[in-house]
Amino acid sequence: MTFSKMEGSNSTISSESNDIHKDVGIKKPIEMKLMDLFSGCGVMSTELCLGANMTGVTLVTKWAVDLNEYAYESLKYNHPEIEVRNEKVEEFLTFLKEWESLCSLFLLIGDKSHQKHISPPEMDNIEEDEEEEVDNEEIFEIRRKGYGEDGDTLELEDGLCGAKDKLQEFLTDGFNSMILLLSGDVDVICGGFLGRYALARLVGMNYQARLGMMVAGAYGLPLLVSYACVWGAHHIIKSPQYPLPTHNVVLRGHSPLELESNVVTYDEGSAPELKNKLFLGDAISDFSRMENNESRDEMPYNSEPRTEFQKFIRSSKEVMPGLTTGQQNSVLYDHRPLKLNNDDYQRVCQIPVRKGANFRDLKGVRVRADNKVEWDLTVDREYLPSKKPLVPDYAMPFMRGTSSKPFGRLWWDETVPIVVTKAEPHN
């Protein structure tokens, strides 16, 4: 699939209107429901909801799924209003099919036209002869397909009297509270899918699909990371264009050749006025100093906001969620390091405090003319009190000896790569 530059557009991706419902006879909904797959701690869905709300669309995350137990616990703690599930996405999707089958079996839905959920009083009005069509044998056949420990031990005995009523009560309560979604319940799905797979699946289901390569630094973040953003939409909806860059950015590396035509940028020859690129100092220069053993969950900032970015991060509820109107956040949360072990802490302390310093500056390492590292055999190898070497063996062959990343210092005037979840110095 290719995406070409549109006539009269400033974007290499799309020139279509941002009004996704224009000319298709669809009224913009008061609230749109979102499902977040591979949700992690919910960063992507939170950002999407924030962005949508700033444009007048009320987008609300209703369901989220992630296999990681800690991500699940974090999202559930911070967003108790979201139905969060801790399981594999494919198992969750399989369960949704079973859920819809059961809801249909108990006449909660018919012909999959369930735009209006049935309340308990309405359930009481179901004709007796219709209710009798629900067969216990059929119900427990479903249960035997994977919800029992042994899979085939449930039998229709006297001990199971009332099981149908209990199951109907559970389904009705879950149906009305929307603990699980049914076909048509969700308006927006987001997640970290494999790009090519997502495109293929969307096209295979007769959806529109497009891909845009977007650099975080070009939108006001001090990050170099590039994102492959895949959008899919129903064929009757006009898909919006990707937002154009707002900031200058220092680029390193390049996009894969097959994705060059998908980079979101301006037409050649245009000279847009962009804001200044952001650096690390623009984001965190107001942070309080911390030590290796920092344990506080909350601490004060060390100064008033120094940059527009810092003001935005601390801004009021009209711009950022979770703050009282007119309030500016003065508390810094979760500013804690991954505590280094004694060996790594001693290594870090010996890295010079200057821009670009890394393990190459430690005693016993020599940098050749081709920028590869080798052991300096003219000096004795230095060891830590633990008897382990100051320069660990794994650092030397990292990226075939060309890397300067192990134990590398970030600096205030740099636009930095994304920080990995486990921010260890060997990364």
From TrEMBL:
Molecular function per GO: DNA (cytosine-5-)-methyltransferase activity; DNA binding
GO biological process, one term: negative regulation of gene expression via chromosomal CpG island methylation
Cellular component GO terms held in the UniProt record: nucleus
PANTHER family: CYTOSINE-SPECIFIC METHYLTRANSFERASE, DNA (CYTOSINE-5)-METHYLTRANSFERASE CMT3
Protein name per its UniProtKB record: DNA (cytosine-5-)-methyltransferase
